[in-house]
Amino acid sequence: MSVVPAEVLPDGAPTTKEAAPEAAELGPRARLWPSLAAVYRAQLSRARVARIPLLFVATFQSVGIMVLMRGVVDGGGEARAVVAGSAVLVVAFVALNLLAQYFGQLRASGGLDHYATLPVPPAAVVLGAAGAYASFTVPGTLVTAVFGCALFGLPMAHLWILIAVIPLAGAALAGLGAALGLLAPRPELATLLGQLGMSAALLLGVLPPERMPEAVRLARDLLPSTYGVEALARTFGPDPDWARVLADLAVCGGVGVISLAVATWAYRRAAVR
Fold first, then answer.
1. Residue 167: is its pLDDT beyond 70?
2. How far apart are CA 262 and CA 265, in angstroms?
3. 50 CB-contact burial (10 Å; exposed 0-12 / middle 13-18 / buried 19+)
């Protein structure tokens, strides 16, 4: 076998050094909003059949509470608190309770490993799941609010405020539920924490605050859903104070941002373990 110098090779024939393939470049990092939309659609499709019966239970529970309270509360500010609290309770049942159970089971079953292999930011996983679960609360919340207004004789002219109350309260409660599920060491504990959170939303959100002791009122102020309840309840009055309504919604939105940020941190912490 003869050896031919590289200089005498035909033009365009690559040498051994030139023929070595270059290292492939990594693809661009997945952007947040397209990833969020993909996770949201996947979660919405996955949970559509399984969550509809639970949404019916949440709505029936809130309607039943209002029927029971009708024998105790006649009207006025107490009736506004009962209706607003019962409507937001539907959000708490799904966004807090069910999401805590979902992430607790996902962590225990190793499902976080699947999401960790996907080219999506951690925030997209948390926000997509939270948004999908919160979306299921819209029909039940509307039905509960309309039924409550008819039951207690409250005006329905400002029920459009639910367009802001549902996503803001849903974000705050979904972030809290996701954080509880991801930080709980066992799925049973995540279920317990979700149930306790929903019970707190029931007792502190539905019962009129005027009848609560001062210590319980302070605990009520720490609950994220309280400000959504207050914003909705104020719109049932004859002359709503819109400045205070917007302030309550702003607090609810701020708590939602914080709780979702904590849930994203908890997801990163659980995914690397």
1. yes
2. 5
3. exposed
Cα–Cα distance measured from residue 175 to residue 116, given in angstroms and rounded to the nearest whole number: 19
Measure the CA angle with vertex 195, ends 194 and 198; round to 5°: 85
pTM: 0.83
Q: Are 94 and 129 in contact (CB under 8 A)?
A: no
How far is C-alpha 58 from the chain's CA centre? 16
Q: Which residue in this structure is represented by tokens 């029971």?
A: 68
Residues of 28-49 as b/e, b for ≥16 C-beta within 10 angstroms?
eeeeeeebbeebbeebbeebee
| CB 107, CB 187: distance < 8 Å | yes
Sign of CA dihedral 180, 186, 187, 189: negative
Selection from 164, 174, 85 nearest residue 129 by Cα: 174
- C-alpha torsion angle, residues 67, 70, 76, 77 (rounded to 10): -60
